[in-house]
Predict the structure.
Amino acid sequence: MESVKWLKITTLADNLTFHGSLLGQWGLSFLLEITSADDKKHTILFDTGAVKDALFFNIDRLRVNLSTLEAIVLSHGHRDHTAATVELARRSRRKVQTVAHPYAFERRFLVMKDGRKRFHQVPKGERAKDIEQAGARLVLTKEPFQIIPGVTTTGEIPRLTRFEKIPGRLFIVAGRVTQRDHILDDQALIVNVRRQGAWILTGCAHSGIINTLKRFENIVPSVPIHAIIGGFHLVSKRKEEIKPVVDALKSYKPKVISPCHCTGFQATNMIWKAFDREFVLNFSGRTIVSQKETQPRVL
């Protein structure tokens, strides 16, 4: 896998916020600013949040210029990651490439304990046809997809571990057939930074964060993992369910680990204790830069 020279990640949307002038939300969006091997500058978005007004409030406060935005990667088709794709694409002067799994825009719902359905698919106005009508180029694929040299999606992630499981009350309507939703559209983003290794960004890691890392190893077996940043979806898990995940994470020896969004307080605390020197607390407005130590790591 080729590499890039420099990477800066700015969290545009997350549950937490540290800056008094920014807003938090139950959603996630990362801005990636990249210098490629040929010294060209690239701007990529990973996910587009849950509350578009809060997202654009933060974008404006942070003075983020999206006129050169060239790609939006959607980690999966849940509404807390897909609320502003169309509006963000329209802010660019370029024809924005939007990359997602073919299942990302299907109808999906959770069956509540009382039998009611709660739909949680991509919101109206942000779906496949809306993205294309906005002038963006939509790429739907299950396979890894190169955004630029050194940056690629994982594509669909095989479920290999026994300790990472999908809840049983999720359903998806795929091809007019209602079936159990295993959230097969879940994918991560890989950025290979020169002299460091892979920076792996996850939306919710519904596939399991360890399955995600195993998928990376399958795609790029010779590159070490430098950083793991994003949602780990451990928010509803018990300690005995979180422990094997944390133990498995230790074997990868990341130099930076920054769980956020749907990871949950208990899991985040356990990861912090396991990675005292590598842990970075994330929040809306946080910037993490390659070749530069993030300070303060924990507030």
Summary: The chain has six helices and 17 strands. Helices lie at 52-61, 85-90, 128-133, 209-219, 239-250, 265-274. Residues 48 and 85 are 6 Å apart (CA to CA).
